[in-house]
């Protein structure tokens, strides 16, 4: 057979004749379950065998929440500056350009307004692919402006958190966003406009210490890491073994920091149900 040649240490196919399997056809969950990626996409990126919720970004969440995926993006051109002239292995502006090119995103959050179950909804969704979903000045500013839009137009606000915490390249400027977003949410509450916070995997650091835990209703996806400092840091600091499932959404719910956990397929229905209840409106089918 001409398509292979025998060598001393086995059978070797000539390089020009090798048939590589295209990447991305299959996805393997942490429990070892394997699923076709097309099937995974059709199932909202949730493994049907073990219920594992694969991390998704703002694009997929907008498709999930907005009717017919129709929405108007808010402040989409805002980008970070480099007031601290920060440099580690790369200059901060170079890092920003590289990740913007790689992800097609301007920063770690996108904000938009559209119809959800037939009624207006403002959504802010974070993207972990953009420097770990870190919260810099642009993230805080876009969330603040989205809240302002919600107040001005009397529209409920949904925050979808997915973040590793503050952005070290912006140091104290990043930490200031905790105060800014919390203050804006206080104004939203004063205006009696519903705020639903959805925590996804992971929701950590400054996001957890501010807007992620300030919802009228705080909900999460299954098995999402929700914490200020992660399990490894807590274990190293305390020197103690941690309980099974420590800081996962089920653990957080059990200890009173969440109101409910919902599978991805139920999120749109449940978020709009809460909004109707808060506003004392007829429940949408």
TrEMBL record:
Region annotation Disordered: where it falls in the sequence: 1-23
Keyword line: ATP-binding, Cytoplasm, Fatty acid biosynthesis, Fatty acid metabolism, Lipid biosynthesis, Lipid metabolism, Nucleotide-binding, Transferase
Catalytic activity: N(6)-carboxybiotinyl-L-lysyl-[protein] + acetyl-CoA = N(6)-biotinyl-L-lysyl-[protein] + malonyl-CoA
Stretches assigned to the CoA carboxyltransferase N-terminal domain: 24-285
GO cellular component terms given for this protein: acetyl-CoA carboxylase complex
Principal location class: cytoplasm
General function of this protein: Component of the acetyl coenzyme A carboxylase (ACC) complex. Biotin carboxylase (BC) catalyzes the carboxylation of biotin on its carrier protein (BCCP) and then the CO(2) group is transferred by the transcarboxylase to acetyl-CoA to form malonyl-CoA.
Assembly description: Acetyl-CoA carboxylase is a heterohexamer composed of biotin carboxyl carrier protein (AccB), biotin carboxylase (AccC) and two subunits each of ACCase subunit alpha (AccA) and ACCase subunit beta (AccD).
Stated name of the protein: Acetyl-coenzyme A carboxylase carboxyl transferase subunit beta
Organism: Tenacibaculum adriaticum
Biological classification of the source: Bacteria, Pseudomonadati, Bacteroidota, Flavobacteriia, Flavobacteriales
């Amino acid at each position: 057979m001409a398509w292979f040649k025998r060598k001393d240490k086995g059978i070797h196919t000539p390089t020009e004749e090798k048939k590589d399997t295209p990447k991305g056809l299959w996805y393997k969950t942490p429990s070892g379950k394997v699923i076709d990626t097309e099937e995974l996409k059709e199932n909202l990126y949730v493994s049907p065998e073990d219920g594992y919720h694969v991390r998704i970004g703002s694009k997929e969440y907008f498709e999930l929440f907005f009717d017919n995926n129709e929405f108007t993006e808010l402040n989409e051109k805002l980008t970070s500056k480099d007031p601290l002239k920060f440099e580690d292995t790369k200059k901060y502006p170079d890092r920003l350009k590289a990740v913007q090119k790689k992800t097609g995103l301007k920063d770690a959050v996108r904000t938009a307004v559209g119809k959800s179950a037939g009624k207006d909804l403002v959504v802010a969704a974070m993207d972990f692919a953009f420097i770990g979903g870190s919260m810099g000045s642009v993230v805080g500013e876009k969330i603040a402006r989205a809240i302002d839009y919600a107040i001005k137009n009397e529209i409920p606000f949904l925050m979808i958190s997915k973040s590793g915490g503050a952005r070290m390249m912006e140091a104290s400027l990043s930490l200031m966003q905790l105060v800014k977003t919390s203050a804006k949410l206080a104004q939203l509450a004063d205006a009696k406009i519903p705020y639903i916070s959805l925590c996804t995997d992971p929701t950590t650091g400054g996001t957890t210490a501010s807007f992620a835990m300030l919802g009228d209703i705080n909900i999460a996806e299954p098995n999402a890491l929700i914490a200020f400092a992660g399990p490894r840091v807590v274990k190293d600091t305390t020197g103690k073994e941690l309980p099974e499932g420590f800081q996962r959404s089920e653990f957080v719910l059990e200890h009173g920091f969440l109101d409910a956990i919902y599978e991805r397929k139920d999120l749109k229905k449940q978020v709009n149900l809460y909004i109707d209840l808060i506003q004392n409106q007829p429940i949408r089918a």
